[in-house]
Amino acid sequence: MINKRRSAVVLIGLLAATVLTGPVPVLAAQEPVAEPPKVELVLDVSGSMRAKDIDGRSRISVAQQAFNEVVDALPEETQLGIRVLGATYQGNDKKQGCRDTQQIVPVGPVDRARAKAAVADLKPTGFTPVGLALRSAAEDLGTGTTARRIVLITDGEDTCAPPDPCDVARELAAQGTKLVVDTLGLAPDEKVRRQLLCIATATGGTYTAAQSAEELTGRIKQLVDRAKDTYTAAPTVVGGRSVCDGAPLLGPGVYSDREKFSEHRWYRVPVRPGQELRASVSVGLDRPVNPDYGVLLRATATDGRELVRGVDAGSGRTDVVSAGLRWSAGEEPADGPSPTPQASTAVEATTVCLVVSNAFAPRPGTEADPGLPVELTVDVVAASPAPTAPDLGRGWVLLVLLTVAGLITGLLAGLLTRWWVGTWRETR
C-alpha cells in the first residue's frame, strides 16, 4: 500500500513538472554509439582507365597498387567495402552499360587476401555510371548513428546521367544519411574536376587530383584514417518552420537542416533566468551562387522583438558562411518580466526564437533543390556577466569629484603658463 502511494506521488510530481516546464525540447545525441568506422572504396574501371599517363603506367594498375598498399595499412577496427563501375559490360548498349556497377567486397571486417584478389582481376571495360554507383554505395554502407565515408576514384565524368552524380550527392545529403563522399581524380580534366568537386562539396567531403601512384596511395590512406579520426555522432536532423509558432523546440546540441535560397527557417530554444543562449549557424555553399551574399542568425522574442543578431557576408566563392550570437535571459525578457528570486524553483523557461536567413541567389542553371545544407549549434549555459568596471560614483559625489579635478587641473595649467612666460621674457 505504501509503495502504491509513493508511486502515485512520483507520478503526480512528474506531471506537475511537465506542466510547469513545458514540452521537452529535442536533444541532439551527445554520446557516439560504439560502431566501427565504415568506408567503401568505389573504383572506376571504365575503358578510359587503360590510359598510360601516370608515371608511364596505366591508371588501373596504379589504382590496383594503391588499393593493395591501403588494404595492408587498414586499422583493424575499420569495416571496408569495395564497389566498381564499368567493370563487366563490354558491349555498346548504353542502357545496359549504364547499369554496370557491382560490390565486389561487402562492407565488413577487413579480409585482406580477399580484397586484394578482387581488385587484382579488374580490367578496364565499359561505361562510367558514377551517379548510380554512388547511390548503390550509400545502400551498401547502410544506416547508422555515425558518419560513413565513400572514397570515389575515377578518371572521367559520368557518361550515363541521369542520375547526375552531383544531384545524387545532394539527394543523399538532403536525406540525412550522414554520408561523406571524398573524390580522387586521376585525369587533369577541368570538367571532371568540377563534377568531382561538386560531389565532394555537397556531402562535406574533399576533392583531390592524384597525378602519381605515390599521391594516390597517400591520399587514400589519409581518407581512410580520417574515417576513424572523425568518428563522432552526426548532427540530429530537424526541420525548421516558416514561422516561430510551432517550430521545433531544441535543446543543447548540433542539428542539420536544409534551407532554400533566400529562405527563413525558425527554431525555438527554452532559456531560463540566469542562463545564456549561445548559438551558431554554418551554411554550406554546395553549388555556384552569385557574388555578394550573406547569412543572418537572429534571436527574437515570441512577439517578434529582436534580441540579438549575428551576421556574416561575402563577395566571392567560399565553402561555408557562418554567424553566431549570445544572449542572456537577464538582458531583456523575451516573454515578460523574469520571475523574482523568491519565486518557485520550477521557473518557467523563456522561449527564444532562432531564425536562420540567407541572402544567396543561384547562378543561371543552378538547381534550387534540395536546399543548402545548414548546421545549427545550440548551447544553453550559466550566464557569464561582464566584470564590473571601476565606479567613480554617482550624483553629488561624482559632481564634486569632477569639480575638484577641474580646479586642480586649471591651477596647474596656470602655474606652468606663468613659469613659461617668465622664462621666455628672461631669455629675451
From TrEMBL:
Pfam families: VWA_2 (PF13519). PROSITE patterns: VWFA. Residues 38-227 form the VWFA domain. Keywords: Membrane, Signal, Transmembrane, Transmembrane helix. SMART domains: VWA. The chain crosses the membrane at residues 396-421. Residues 1-28 form the signal peptide. InterPro entries: CLCR, VWF_A, vWFA_dom_sf. The keyword Transmembrane applies. PANTHER family: CALCIUM-ACTIVATED CHLORIDE CHANNEL REGULATOR, ZINC FINGER (C3HC4-TYPE RING FINGER) FAMILY PROTEIN. This is Ca-activated chloride channel family protein. The lineage of its organism: Bacteria, Bacillati, Actinomycetota, Actinomycetes, Micromonosporales.
